[in-house]
Amino acid sequence: MEVSGCPTTPITLNQSPPTASELISLSSLRTLLLPTLSLPHIAPHLELISDWKLLRFLHGYSNNIEDAKAAYERMSDFRLEYNVGYITL
């Protein structure tokens, strides 16, 4: 598909299972985030607590667990402050 003369490149997704080291990092991150993952504005949204979502944070912060944790908590605070995930009419 082309929009206004701008070619688009298909996005390829890595659908391979997490590596052994990623599983260890995921476990550590999930343990550190347990209080946040249990919050009422996060817990019902399975897409926010999945391994794939947490892996995105780990990959985005060069597998630094503390940085990924801090970023996830900022995302959680943002969602709470702006009622993201709630439909209001």
Automatic annotation (TrEMBL):
- The protein here is known as Uncharacterized protein
Q: Classify the source by domain of life.
A: Eukaryota
